[in-house]
């Protein structure tokens, strides 16, 4: 398994086109649950 970071929708589409399955993890600096599981 490899990790890729998509900076925009076109990069995400390119990654998705090359792989059978992808996992997308969304994060926001203002999100309480994101803050609790993010790096401290």
From TrEMBL:
It comes from the Eukaryota. Residues 13-39 form the Thioredoxin domain. InterPro entries: Thioredoxin-like_sf, Thioredoxin_domain. CDD domains: TRX_family. Gene3D superfamilies: Glutaredoxin. Pfam families: Thioredoxin. This is Thioredoxin domain-containing protein. It comes from Nymphaea colorata.
């Amino acid at each position: 398994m490899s990790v890729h970071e998509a900076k925009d929708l076109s990069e995400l589409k390119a990654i998705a086109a090359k792989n059978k399955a992808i996992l997308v993890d969304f994060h926001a600096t203002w999100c309480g649950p994101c803050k609790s599981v993010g790096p401290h």
